[in-house]
Design goal:
The complex is a heterodimer of chains A (259) and B (318). Chain A is mostly helical. Chain A has helices at residues 3-25, 27-30, 32-53, 61-91, 96-99, 105-132, 142-166, 170-186, 199-205, 209-222, 229-253; strands spanning 55-56, 59-60. In chain A, 77% of the residues lie in helices and 2% in strands. Chain A has a two-stranded antiparallel sheet with strand order 1-2. In chain A, helix 1 (3-25) packs parallel to helix 6 and helix 7 runs parallel beside helix 11. In chain A, 47% of the residues are buried. Chain B has two domains: 2-234, P-loop containing nucleotide triphosphate hydrolases (Rossmann fold, 3-Layer(aba) Sandwich), CATH 3.40.50; 236-317, Alpha-Beta Plaits (2-Layer Sandwich). Chain B has helices at residues 2-10, 53-60, 82-87, 104-114, 119-132, 148-160, 178-193, 205-211, 229-235, 278-285, 301-317, and strands at 12-22, 28-38, 42-46, 68-73, 76-77, 89-92, 166-170, 197-201, 214-219, 222-228, 238-245, 259-262, 267-273, 292-297. Chain B starts with a helix and ends with a helix. The chains are: A mainly alpha (259), B alpha/beta (318). The interface between A and B is medium-sized, with 31 and 34 residues.
């Protein structure tokens, strides 16, 4: 291994270790809240309201929303982990520890993305376990389920990274999750099939990237969804590439971290 | 082979050419500075607040993007060989810049990791440098609980984890008590003797005098002096003393041959050039019936030096 590669490999492992240590150190903030929120969703929407709704797409309402709720927690956790970790480092100036080091920008990006991925998958696993208390979960396509959740987590880790780069204060890291991410997630087919919507709103919904992620994940679980799995993959991979290139460009320019 | 070795020996630790920086708010922090620091040197960068010292250091350590100019660290150009150049530098910044919720050991171990040092080796170095800076016993403590002096020493230990060839310290002893300051001086001197090139910015002339062989003085984003420390100090040929008299001083108090200022009824400020001595001063005071109770040196020598050098430069330019 060349010296540069070796330095970057050790640097990457260090960043990942640091991120995992952070997730575990503040586990009450990072791992517990999604568990509580999703339990409430399962109780209220799944049990109480869901029993009156009946079946959706041939499945009980609880079975139908379970993949969406798991994906919702993965999205918010991946995004939240990177945005808070990177902005915290900027705010406390300790991002300079990384900026002055010889690590390549791509290594820094991968380190933070892996942190978001680890938290997203941990939370996804915890919420899946919670879901098992309320419904039976059968995974029809395990590899599709896994690949969609991993790719989605990467997309939102990068989105959180971009938000943190541009954020100048704490308001800057709460505006996007509150006013963009949450509405898009709620309207992304977590709680309903877009086939229930009038045609115009179905088309509007198709402009929402989260719709493809939720439905791709749901396809992995149930074997069917509102969106074709090929289209879902294409959209998700396009976002991975687009956001990845943009993140590296911002790091190369030093946006938000160099004056 | 022999030529390569010779080149290695004569290589400069830092070469800055035509460095300019204009911030987004149009403030010109650097107006084209040229600076060379030899390998193994202990170099002081002095200047008043806002002179451009921290901006220059920021550019060298990649925290600030230069508007124009080039920086070479041990012949590695910061634009074309960024990784190699960065690997040569250890930075101790002016502001605290570590995660204050992390234990000390994590902070230095992570820093080593960012430079590609394995955990086994990093642990050995952490023990060495935290130990030498009297912080090893506190390694498991959360860094927020450290005193100001300890936080500064932690930043020095962190900067040394990858054993840089060039160590840059931006006011490392600001707000640190004299005892700790002196122990830090001893440590830095030892480090320099072992071969590390050190660049230091400071507000304490005593610190620069004690440690540094060469000095650059920056004002308004340009270098106004770049010389040996001894040559610069020679320019500071006037020393000011404050005398406290037993009796009230006459209002029109003068001393033959000396420039004096009456500060209050009992205090007199006297400027003494390098050609004059204290015996001459006292021989003038006795006939005037001035009984001196105590005497001390006015301790603003650095400010005085800046003012003199800046005045000289302004005069030359006008």
């Amino acid at each position: 291994m060349s010296n540069t590669l070796a330095v970057n490999w050790v640097g990457y492992k260090t960043l990942v270790r640091k991120e995992i240590t952070r997730i575990l150190r503040i586990w009450i903030q990072t791992l517990v809240p999604p568990c509580i929120t999703m339990t409430l969703y399962f109780v209220i929407f799944g049990n109480l309201i869901g029993s009156r709704i009946g079946e959706m797409g041939g499945y009980s309402y609880m079975q139908y929303i379970a993949p969406g709720l798991i994906m919702m927690s993965v999205i918010s956790s991946s995004y939240g982990n990177v945005v808070s970790s990177f902005f915290g480092a900027k705010f406390g100036n300790y991002i300079e520890e990384i900026t002055v080091s010889p690590l390549a920008n791509i290594t820094v990006l991968l380190g933070f993305i892996t942190g978001g991925l680890v938290r997203g998958l941990c939370v996804g696993l915890i919420v899946s376990c919670v879901a098992l208390f309320f419904t039976d979960i059968e995974v029809q396509h395990p590899w599709i389920t896994l690949s969609v959740v991993v790719l989605t987590s990467i997309v939102f880790s990068m989105a959180g990274f971009i938000n943190a780069i541009f954020a100048k204060n704490f308001e800057g890291i709460s505006v996007i999750p509150t006013f963009v991410l949450t509405p898009l997630t709620y309207l992304g087919g977590v709680f309903y099939s877009i086939n229930l919507l009038p045609e115009f709103w179905q088309n509007v919904s198709r402009a929402n990237p989260i719709l493809y992620m939720v439905n791709g994940f749901r396809y992995g679980f149930l074997g069917e969804s509102d969106i074709g799995i090929g289209t879902a993959y294409a959209i998700i991979i396009a976002f991975v590439i687009l956001l990845g290139v943009f993140c590296v460009h911002l790091l190369n320019k030093g946006t938000g971290i160099r004056s | 082979m022999a030529r390569d070795h010779q080149k290695l020996l004569t290589m400069n630790a830092l070469t800055i050419t035509g460095l300019k920086k204009t911030y987004d708010n149009s403030i010109k922090a650097l107006n084209g500075i040229d600076l060379t620091v030899e390998q193994g040197d202990f170099f002081a960068v002095l200047g008043p607040n806002g002179a451009g010292k921290t901006t220059a250091i920021g550019i060298v350590s990649s925290l600030v993007t230069a508007t124009e100019g080039s920086v070479k660290v041990f012949d590695y150009d910061l634009n074309t060989h960024k990784e190699q150049a960065k690997a040569c530098i250890g930075l101790v910044p002016q502001e605290i810049n570590f995660n204050q919720f992390e234990p000390l050991l994590n902070i230095v171990m992570n820093q080593a990791g960012y430079y590609g040092i394995s955990r086994g080796e990093a642990l050995k170095r952490a023990e060495k440098y935290l130990g030498e800076l009297q912080l090893w016993d506190r390694r498991a403590d959360i860094s927020r609980g450290l005193s100001g002096g300890m936080k500064r020493r932690l930043m020095i230990a962190r900067a040394l984890m990858h054993e840089p060839r060039l160590l840059i310290l931006d006011e490392p002893t600001a707000g640190v008590d004299i005892e700790i300051r002196r122990s830090m001086w001893r440590f830095l001197r030892k480090l320099n003797e072992q071969g590390t090139t050190i660049i230091l910015t400071t507000h304490y002339l005593e610190e620069a005098e004690n440690l540094c062989r060469n000095v650059a003085i920056i004002d308004k984003g340009r270098i106004i002096v770049n010389d040996r420390m001894s040559n610069v100090l020679r320019k500071l040929h006037v020393q000011t003393f404050l005398l406290t008299s037993v009796q009230p001083l006459p209002s029109n108090m003068t001393i033959n041959g000396f420039v004096t200022r009456r500060v209050d009824d009992l205090t007199l400020e006297v400027d003494m050039t390098s050609e004059q001595n204290l015996n001459q001063l006292f021989s003038e005071l006795t006939p005037a019936n001035i009984e001196v109770e105590s005497m001390r040196t006015k301790s603003n020598r650095l400010e005085e030096l800046f003012i003199r050098l800046i005045d000289v430069k302004d005069e030359q330019e006008s």
